[in-house]
Amino acid sequence: MIEAKSLTKRYGDKAAVEDLTFTVRPGVVTGFLGPNGAGKSTTMRLIMGMDAPTSGTVTVNGRHFSQHARPLKTVGALLEARAIHPGRSARGHLLAQAATAGIGRQRVDEVLGVVGLEEAAGRRAGRFSLGMGQRLGIASALLADPEILILDEPVNGLDPDGIRWIRFLLRELAAEGRTVLLSSHLMSEMAVTADHVIVMGRGRLLRDQSMASFIADAGAERVRVRSPEADSLRELLAREGAIVHEAGEPGVFAVEGLTSDDIGTVARKADVTLYELAPQTGSLEEAYMALTEDSVEYRAKEAA
Ligand code: ADP
User: DSSP of 234-268, one letter per residue?
Assistant: First the structure.
């Protein structure tokens, strides 16, 4: 469990994180979202005790990170700025870490296996591709078998296979009862990996809720309708109080305010033929874009 209470971090007069209160619970994957500059990395550094808050607190399993007898057994992290000695092999890097933390050699081989780096274990980490470097970073986060995992953009540089692998790994780790906090800019991936979302914008908490309710809250649910008698059906549905949106295809429209059951019943009563009747669910990307529109700090200039 990670608990932040009124967590604030200022750099000069700029608040990178302001009055942040949230709880990251065990047993689920929590997605940590927000535009660049929202304060995600700062928050992760504060959790890991790599930076001190200006005010407020953040604890991992009830205590400050540094107050744990074996902090790495409590939290394993993959953060952006990782120091890997380029001349060291992957195994050498993990062995050095294991020695410092009092972890046996056997565990090093175990995590090399978990991340699929057995074959490359003897190669110099400096020659690793971005994806292999990410795998090594994940191996080092897992080394002490931590109860809490914090991963900043872990899929960065991974190929589709690697992305799938990390999705299954994280879901499995959460199912074992661990706490998993994950940041990523890949919304489609986040949507299938995380069960819960924490969204930040300009240093502040924007949302802390389940993935399903975040997506559902964001947009009015619509139903896609296709019918050879679209014009008369539109009128009938409007009379029932529906809002009808054009879909840009002949004979197709989208309905807001009525369920697919309602629409089917209206069509049946009026003896109108339906070719398609499909409830549309919004996407995480749409929900996220709608929420963070105003808090994007560095927006690319629109092309003239
Ligand atoms: P994110 O990870 O969401 O992109 P960051 O936590 O990196 O956001 O940054 C939040 C804000 O704090 C940004 O405006 C950033 O410029 C600022 N910031 C982060 N670290 C420092 C630092 N060490 N010194 C000054 N400003 C910082």
Answer: HHHHHHTT-EEEE-SSTTEEEEESS-HHHHHHHHH
Does ligand 1 have an atom closer than 6 angstroms to the CB of 15? no
User: Which domains occur in the chain, in start order?
Assistant: 2-216 (3.40.50.300), 222-281 (3.30.70)
The protein residue whose alpha carbon is closest to atom 16 in ligand 1 is 37
Going residue by residue through the chain (304 aa), what tens digit of pLDDT does each one get? Answer: 999 999 999 999 999 999 999 999 999 999 999 999 999 999 999 999 999 999 999 999 999 999 998 888 899 999 875 667 778 899 999 999 999 888 999 999 999 999 999 888 888 888 888 888 889 999 999 999 999 999 999 988 888 989 999 999 999 999 999 999 999 999 999 999 999 999 999 999 999 999 999 988 876 678 999 999 999 999 999 999 999 988 888 999 999 899 999 999 999 999 999 999 998 878 899 889 888 886 665 555 444 3
* Ligand 1 atom nearest to CA at 42: 6
Instruction: Write the DSSP symbol of residue 230.
Output: H
For a mutational test of ligand 1's pocket, the pick from 9, 36, 42, 48, i.e. the residue with the most ligand atoms closer than 8 A to its C-beta, is: 42
Please state the atom number of ligand 1 nearest to the C-alpha of residue 80: 2
Rounded Cα distance between 299 and 141, Å, is 32
The answer, yes or no, to whether any atom of ligand 1 lies below 6 A from the CB of 198, is no
